[in-house]
Every structure is written in structure tokens, then in C-alpha cells.
Please model this.
Amino acid sequence: MKKGGSEENEVHVVMLPWLAFGHMIPYLDLSIALAKFGIHVSFISTPRNISRLPKIPPNLSQFIEFVALPLPKLESDPLPENAEATTDIPLERMDDLMIACDLLREPVKKVIAEKSPNWILVDFFYHWAADIALELDVPLILYIVVSAASAVFFEGQRQASTSPQDMTVPPDHETEASTPGMEAAARVIRITQGCKAIVVRTCPELEADYLKSFSKMTGRPVIPMGCLPPETVEEASVNGEEPWSGVFGWLDKQKPKSVAFIGFGSECKLQREDIHEIAYGIELSGLPFIFILAKPLWGGGDDDEVVPPGFESRTAGRGVVQIGWAPQREILAHPSIGGSLFHAGWGSIMENLRHGNYLVLLPFIFTQPLETRLLVDKGLAIEVERAEDGSFTRNGIANALQKAMVAQEGEALRARTKEAAHGIFANKQLNHTYFNKFVEYLKDGVYENK
Model:
């Protein structure tokens, strides 16, 4: 295997995540986990994104280097000022962000040539990383941040819909005039053909059949790294946020497993009507709660403009509403949190199940419906009911929360969640076994699927 770094026995990897926090955070989690094994990481992103990521534990900072590459500006119709991630832009500008990211090809190539790493770990988007890997003789690993089940679904869809003439390698996109984003399928074809292996944040105890199917479909080793339970981090001090000491003081006074956490992340931009219906459902549930909302796309973002009129006064003392950033991992780890209503993002699923929190899922976009189906089928989640037109109601929200957290009909879910947390998601020995195998693969390039 190609050796990089200053010492022959050092392993050095380059991380190249897509510019969405639902991707950058899992890549950072992996970077921190690898650093604990003495593996050096060069983490490539843009300056503002790097400044918004959680801080590296001081004892591991020597192993992780952030490489800040300015996001190229588009001459025609530039992105908004300081827009460097999907959360910073409306959905209709996503193609422009893709074009700007494709223009990072040469700067990324220069970094990799200078660092001379042993591996490149790349996200689904950067199809051109396969060409860089080939040219610089650095093996490539595709790290997907969703479940193996979702990966199998999309790979099956791609193979079923792709005609032979469409299987050709797509053109490079190095100029603003190019089509943004070639279809995601074409990008994945390029990366899959050029990678040596695929790694997934999961374990066979949860997705054995899907892991085998994905490997068979792609013709590549698919390596489960385990659930990668993140270490408890001091997030409350990030970005200088002060109000959270009061919130945690309130949590300390609540009964164990009694509080519902409600949050839909930064990527899921909810409409006012959806937020109001969710809020009314929380109110109807009668449960104590913490309701976290991203800054909305309308108005000035004051609480009264976001939640229904009178909501906070009617629920005073029973819950907390916060708009903007929140220390989600610290909140989910608190013993008073019992259930979580969210969008079924894979990272949030892992964080919740690690602490045995009961899942109430309301999927909206991307792979969220697929992750929801996987967890519901496993008996580890309740999905909020929707009508045929996709709408949901406050009664559906309230009923799902009550079933998951207090109703007798949810006892099987609660027992199964506790069992899965102990046996899989918080099982350090189990997860370390899988992660150790992945580390050994990075060291010697050999993976035996036993």
C-alpha cells in the first residue's frame, strides 16, 4: 500500500465531505474516532464551514488538520454572501452550490498532492475525486452517511433506470458553464468505479442483509464501521451560546425519560404551516418538551412569528422553545429525555438510540422516508401518520408522541429500544470490534468479511 506522511508507519487520510452539516458532522465524527488510533486526518472544507464545526478535543488536535479552501465565486449570479453550505441557501440555489463545489477540483487536487495521504475518504458528490485518486495513485474510499438500506434502494433504482449508453463516465465540470450537477447517479457511478471500498456507519446486527446486497450490487467491499457512538462533547459553549445553562437546569428538575425532544435539523426547512401543526401536536400531547427550530425562511425569526400565537404562554413551565443553534448531543444525552420527534436523519437516529430515546419519525426529504421504514420495520420507531396527500395533523403528532413515551400500546417499542441501545447502539465492545477492523483495513488494505 502507498505510504504517506512523515513516518513509514503513519496512516494519513484526507476527508472530503459534501457541504452539508448532515455530511460534515459524520465526517468529523469519523476523523475524531480515527485520531484516537493515531491516524492523521486532513479535513477539507470551506473556511466558514470549518469555523462552525464542533471543536476538536485538545488531546487529538495534533492528529486533525483543517484545510480551508475558499468556495469559488460564480461570476454570473453569485451565491449569497457567506453561503458555503446547503443550510445557507434556498433549495432553488442548490445547483449553483454544486457548480461552485465542482470548481474545487484543482484546489483539492493540489492539497492531496502536497499531503500525499494513504487514503482519500470521499462523499457521494465529488465524482472527480476518482480521477484525482487515479492520477496521484492514492486509493479512494466512498463513505456514505446514510443507512445501508437507503444505499441499496438508490443503487437498485440507479441500476434499473440506467441504460448502457448512460453508464459512460460523465464529463468533468470545471467551468461555470457546465451542467451542475450531473445527475447524482452519474456521480456515484464514477466514484463507485474508482473506489477501493465503501464504508457505512452501521453494523451487521442492524443491517446484515443490506450490507451484503450493497456489496454484491457495487462489486466492492462494503465495510461496516459500527454505529460510531460519538463521545459526549461540551457543545454548550460552541458559538458563545449562553441560555443553555438555564435549559439544562430545567431538564435536571424533570423526571427521567419524561421529556420529548423535537428538532428537525438545519437542512429541513419547514413551512410555517408544518411548524404550527407540529407545535399544536406537542401542546396536545401534554408532555414536557424541548422544541428546537432552525431560523425560518420568513420574518425576523422572533418566537411569536414562528410558533402559533399563545403557544409559549399556554405551555409555560412545561416546555422550552429555542430558535437557532442548540447543543443537540448534550440534550439527547440528558437522562430526562425520553423520546425524540425528528426527521429521521441517520446521524440523529444513531445519537438517539445510543441513549435509548424512543423514536417518533416525521420524514420529509432525501433518504429520510427510507430510514424511517427501516426503523419502523425493526420495531424501533413510530412514524407520524400522513394522509394520502402527504399532510399530517396535530392529532397525529400528539398520538405518536404519547404512544412512544407513555401509552400502554408503546410498551413493546420502549422495551425494544432499551434492548437495542444496550445490545447495539451503546455497546462499546461491539462497535469497537467493527471500527477496529476498519482501522486495520486502513493500515494494511485488506478486508475479510467474516
User: Anything to note?
Assistant: Confidence is low (pLDDT under 50) at residues 2-6, 164-182, 232-241. The longest helix spans residues 428-444.
